[in-house]
Amino acid sequence: MTYDDIARRAGVSTATVSRVLSGSGIVSEERRRRVLDAVDALSYRSNRAAKTLRRRRSDTIGLIVSDLEYPFVSSFARAVENEAAAQGFAVLVCNTDEDLERERFYYGLMIEEQVAGVIIAPATEDIRMVQPLVDARVPIVTFDRRFPDDPFDSVLLDNASATGMLLEDLLRHGHRQFAAVIGTTTATPSRERLEAMRAVLDGVPDATLTVIENDLHGTVGVDHALETIGPAVLDRAERMPQRPTAFVCANAIIVMSVLSALGRNGFSVPGDAAVVGYDDVPGFDLFATPVTVVNQPTAWMGATAVARLVERLDRPDAPATATLAPPFMRHRASCGPR
Amino acid sequence: MTYDDIARRAGVSTATVSRVLSGSGIVSEERRRRVLDAVDALSYRSNRAAKTLRRRRSDTIGLIVSDLEYPFVSSFARAVENEAAAQGFAVLVCNTDEDLERERFYYGLMIEEQVAGVIIAPATEDIRMVQPLVDARVPIVTFDRRFPDDPFDSVLLDNASATGMLLEDLLRHGHRQFAAVIGTTTATPSRERLEAMRAVLDGVPDATLTVIENDLHGTVGVDHALETIGPAVLDRAERMPQRPTAFVCANAIIVMSVLSALGRNGFSVPGDAAVVGYDDVPGFDLFATPVTVVNQPTAWMGATAVARLVERLDRPDAPATATLAPPFMRHRASCGPR
DNA sequence: CTGAAAGCGCTTACAG
DNA sequence: CTGAAAGCGCTTACAG
């Protein structure tokens, strides 16, 4: 079944078939009917590859994420897929595990697929990584991460507010020795949150802040992170002159890993130390110590990222937009009282 | 940059370029070199749409899931993407929310995309749903679900063993009144697990089993399920002649929803009732009552599904394989003692 | 408003 | 082992 078949049956040219089916160009009502009837009668299915080849652009968008297994990511991905489908796009998902080589590979793939655009959470803030996409004029929307000076549309958490909310809660409960437990330092959230923490704590005379990094580049999956981060964090904490009384964790997996290590070592939460984090997860309210977190509106962020991309298709040269998503607190028990 | 450019620069025909780059056909070592050099020099990128159009088959596979936000699903999806990439395929994800209309729509999309194959968890066991895919000769691998008589390659949990493990634990702890809390009844896991429960409990004289369904067709997301299932379950349980002492939940979200409702209504677990389920989730060991579950080897299942699909491409007419994944228990506190 | 025809970038018989 | 050429199924100037 091709346009030829439809054209023959409807007694029109393939150009007319194309005009009707693509909704472009003007066609007389009568011919339109005949075409549509033929399409039905033949139960025609379009050939997307042919369309893509001819239009030099597919109706697919690429979603390149660090790890689909992280709750924040899968929830975001779900929203992206949903909104993309509503807008007539299919979505290609790619998982990089924060591995720059894989990221580079996927950028190449996006070009070969001639995707309409990409939604990415780049593992580094070095913009040279995405130069191939820029050269190929592939529209880019970043989420969770951004590049210096916001050259592309971006959708990310208002990290400063989120951090402020967390620290306010912790400070109110009397905490002064903080440990920031983060993953990949080259990415935006770690940087912004650290900056925000420093800014807030600069105004608190007796406050201390220690940064505990966990380089997870190329690491495989949630389970590994769960097992290794907590022990590494405790190990670091032991060696510190002043033991931290509050662990601020960059994501839900880190929260769990730290809670678990603390528990195994006989520490109680929040008695011996508070543990709070970014990203809520189903079940945090059912923990032995329910976990206090700031959450991101992931579904809204996913839908917004697609919306920005679609707007971009219409107006390639409009100035880039930077959308900050509002965080919201989940006050639970893990932040104190001390 | 097209084959024409490469051919011109290398002083060969486009046919030769194709033979070199696709790895098919025999080409003299010298010409091969020249082609490869030209490819490098021009930093050529292939056009996948052109390949697809010509070969009538893309290097993409479709992954159609019920809800990417469910931990089992996102973990499976991650493994699929990973293995697919290793085998040279990109993956198109589609989220159906168990909505048959969306499922049908995506099947059509798969045909239009001329995907190399699909990995699906069909929402119903009615095989007529996938007839379009069959007619279009799109290879199918089902996961989590299957069709009667296993007409396609399938990868799913050994539901009978898994159920047996759960019941054995519960029976050992003295439970006799069981409630099975399930979602969509038309899908495989519910059916198989119920059958297995009945088979086991038939041999236990004083055992009773009540089935509590929660039709989530077309329901939006994890949050909604979390809020509504637990209360509905308690409501049902109240009206039963004999209150169940053990809730066997079909997935991790149902477990959480039931635990949460129980807690809000002043029931203790496992004191007043045991709550166990299928699928482990990071954090279940940190719950106020750590949750006993049978888990599925999701990463292995995802990789296996892709492997089956790739094998199928080579041998379209080989008999269908039915792969049962081995469940493994996570013995924790929520199953008893009573 | 409509159609004939070129062309998007590949692959693959076919002939040599 | 190699190349000329047809063709995959669409879209889009172009001419009318």
The assembly state of the depicted protein chains is homodimer
Going by CATH, the architecture of the largest domain in chain A would be 3-Layer(aba) Sandwich
Percent helix of chain A, as a range, is 40-55%
CATH top level label of the largest domain in chain A: Alpha Beta
Number of domains of chain A: 3
User: Which of globular, elongated, flat, extended, rod-shaped describes the shape of chain A?
Assistant: elongated
Number of helices of chain A: 12
Beta-strand level of the residues of chain A, as a percent range? 15-25%
Order of helices and strands of chain A: HHHHEHEHEHEEHEHEHEHEEHEE
Average pLDDT metric of chain A: 94
Give the helix/strand class of chain A.
alpha/beta
Quick synopsis:
The structure is a homodimer of 338-residue chains. Chain A has 338 residues and is of the alpha/beta class.
What can you tell me about this protein's structure?
- The structure is a homodimer of 338-residue chains.
- With 338 residues, chain A is an alpha/beta fold.
- Chain A has three domains: 3-46, 434 Repressor (Amino-terminal Domain), CATH 1.10.260; 57-157 and 298-327, Response regulator (Rossmann fold); 159-296, 3-Layer(aba) Sandwich (Rossmann fold), CATH 3.40.50.2300.
- Chain A is 44% helix and 17% strand.
- Chain A has twelve helices and twelve strands.
- Chain A has helices at residues 3-10, 14-22, 29-41, 48-55, 71-86, 100-112, 131-135, 159-172, 188-202, 221-239, 252-264, 298-314, and strands at 60-65, 90-95, 117-120, 140-143, 153-157, 177-182, 208-213, 246-249, 274-278, 292-295, 322-325, 328-330.
- The first copy, chain A, has a six-stranded parallel beta sheet with strand order 2-1-3-4-5-11, with helices on both faces.
- In chain A, strand 3 (117-120), helix 7 and strand 4 form a beta-alpha-beta unit.
- In chain A, helix 1 packs across helix 2 (14-22).
- The longest helix of chain A is centred in the last third of the chain and has 19 residues, at 221-239.
- Chain A is elongated, with a radius of gyration of 25 Å.
- The model of chain A has no long low-confidence stretch (mean pLDDT 94).
- At the A-B interface, helix 4, helix 5, strand 2, helix 6 and helix 10 of A face helix 4, helix 5, strand 2, helix 6 and helix 10 of B.
- Chain A binds a DNA duplex (16 and 16 nucleotides) through residues 2-4, 12-19, 22, 24-28, 31, 46-47, 49-56.
